[in-house]
Design a protein that fits this description.
Blueprint lengths: L10 H6 L8 E6 L14 E8 L3 E8 L3 E7 L2 E8 L4 H20 L2 H5 L7 H30 L7 E7 L6 E7 L2 E7 L5 E7 L13 E5 L3 H18 L4
Antiparallel strand pairs: 1-2, 1-6, 2-3, 3-4, 4-5, 6-7, 7-8, 8-9, 9-10
Helix pairs in contact: 2-5, 4-5
């Protein structure tokens, strides 16, 4: 009997049919509760990737006593498969879905980051230089925490990345939640970049209501975006299914 089984669409085909190209909203999560707690069991680990375009597709990988993968299309489950035997192929396909979704979300904003903002001044540049130092220091702390995950497999990563047009508001955003930081990069209609960072410390996600950092960036958008790209690249590596 094939690893994939014969009931319903083949999971391999569903993996290969998952493509972020053309999507307007993308989500990648690692052990992050988005209303799917009923699928989890104590000590389990979860990876989820989602794209929304003309239709929505979700792949949810659950690891408890074994590995199980669930596929959704247009909010309906189309296949649920408990994996048995070697799982190298499905694991590689899931990691590919994680990486490609993050990569597309990053690259979709490149043109925006290169577009100049009308009316930017030397004072904007000076203010942004100071702000970049704060971002680099804060992101550096987060980067070191991610590196600890790489060296200690007993630690469990809880993080989420959202990119594209927010379904409820239509705002264009790249958002990263990891450890105590909740980072928003808003891509505004005037081509300025609004960065808002919340630091939840030990309070739990969403508890902080006052930003630890907030600034509109006009002159040095690529430098700030590069700091986010480095974090997401590291997160993609640390968050792979192994």
């Amino acid at each position: 009997m094939s690893l994939w089984g014969f009931l319903g669409p083949a999971p391999k085909d569903l993996f290969l049919g998952f493509n972020p190209q053309g999507s307007h909203w993308r989500v990648v999560t690692w052990n992050f509760d988005r209303g799917e707690a009923s699928l989890a069991v104590p000590g389990s680990r979860q990876w989820t990737v989602e794209v929304q375009g003309s239709t929505s597709k979700v792949i949810h990988w659950l690891r408890a006593s074994g590995d199980e993968v669930l596929f959704y299309e247009s909010d309906k489950i189309v296949r649920r498969k408990r994996l048995q035997g070697p799982v190298e192929e499905p694991r590689s396909l899931m990691n590919l879905a994680l990486h490609s979704t993050l990569k597309y979300g990053i690259e979709a904003n490149h043109e925006f980051m290169r577009t100049p903002v009308t009316g930017a001044t030397a004072l904007d540049f000076q203010s942004e230089a100071r702000a970049l130092q704060w971002i680099q220091a804060s992101f550096g702390t987060l980067s070191r925490a991610l590196e600890n995950l790489r060296s200690n497999p007993e630690l469990i990563l809880s993080a989420a990345c959202f990119s594209g047009q927010v379904p409820e508001t239509g705002e264009t955003v790249l958002r990263l939640i990891a450890f105590n930081l909740d980072i928003f990069f808003y891509l505004r209609d005037d081509f300025s970049l609004l960065i808002v960072v919340f630091n939840d410390k030990d309070q739990g996600h969403g508890q902080s209501k006052t930003p630890a950092f907030q600034q509109t960036i006009k002159v040095t958008k690529p430098q700030f975006y590069d700091e986010m790209i480095k974090l997401l690249h590291q997160l993609a590596q640390v968050g792979e299914i192994v």
